[in-house]
Amino acid sequence: MFVGQEHIQELFDKFIENKEIPHSFFYGPSGVGKTTYAKEIAKKLNTSFYEFDAANFKLDDLRKISLSDSIFKPIIFIDEVHRLNSTNMDALLKPLEKNTFFFICASTLNPYSAINSALRSRLLFFEFNPLSDEDLEKILDNLDNNLSKEIKEFLIKSSSFDARAMINLLENAKKLGELSLENLKKIRAHFISNQNDALLTSAFIKSLRASDTNAALLYLARMINENYDVLYIARRLVIFASEDVSNANPNALLLANACLNSVKQIGYPEARIILSQCVVFLSKCKKSNASYLAINKALDYVKNNKLSPIPKYLDNYSPFKKDYIYPHDNPHKKQIMANDCPIFYKDNAIGYEKNFEIWQKEGLYKC
């Protein structure tokens, strides 16, 4: 019995009923059922399931499978798909278009950072959420319905919503002969942490946003102490630099990117110093969310409004391109760049952004 992810199960029940499932990308924290549910789908479809690890994946293996299983479409599952090299990602494109098998891949990373755009365009994305305490308790009851309340509680809390880690701890504790809380604590002296722990991440980002440097450092220290993926932390800092600091201090994004690249090469324990420098800088920066709000407004407008045609003089292949006014030669002549375009960006004039208004008044081009 598969437990949890009801929002995904509901969708796939309908796909399975029609005997067709989409090529899919399952993403979310470790131990929440991505691989298990892919196997569950294969059982419900009554078809073959072939599992590969991206690090060892070979396209020749895929060719053999798709040719040998011609009665029912098999499911090809690639775990940790972000580890595929670019050549293998590109090699998957044509087989996916031929649609001779069902393709499911999984990753702990967001699909927009895990795979290239060509592969993304051929997949649908399904996010797996952390399992609840109730979900994990159901899993334990299915494995052993004689567990005491205190043992269940320790197994669940110490595993940080990772069902695989919880089951692994239970199985190894039973090998000691006596399943006791004392033995469980001997095997797992420290609670593990899931790198996608939403609460700790939220507290970390909100402390940065509030310019509370000490709180941000406290949460950073907790993340490091609980062995969060160093790249996960650094990527969050890059996002924060653009979303919350933005053009109030453009150097924030440069420093955050430098931090990401540096910790990728160095790793723990020295990466803590680089992360700390970046956190202190970002927390102290003036903040502006003007760019963040602007793109959200623009996307909302594009999704919900009939769009006007692009002016013909902006088309390099149109005879009307001769009507385009080149700003460097004609700095005082204004020309419409988009028909019926609303105002999306409102300048907060914070920090470096104050220069924008000055430049606008002085003219962006020298006469």
TrEMBL record:
SUPFAM superfamilies xrefs: P-loop containing nucleoside triphosphate hydrolases, post-AAA+ oligomerization domain-like
Domain AAA+ ATPase: 20-131
Domain of life: Bacteria
SMART domains: AAA (SM00382)
InterPro entries in alphabetical order: AAA+_ATPase (IPR003593), AAA_ATPase_RarA/MGS1/WRNIP1 (IPR051314), ATPase_AAA_core (IPR003959), DNA_pol3_clamp-load_cplx_C (IPR008921), MgsA_C (IPR021886), P-loop_NTPase (IPR027417)
UniProt record similarity statement: Belongs to the AAA ATPase family. RarA/MGS1/WRNIP1 subfamily.
Entry function: DNA-dependent ATPase that plays important roles in cellular responses to stalled DNA replication processes.
Protein name as it appears in the record: Replication-associated recombination protein A
Source taxonomy: Bacteria, Pseudomonadati, Campylobacterota, Epsilonproteobacteria, Campylobacterales
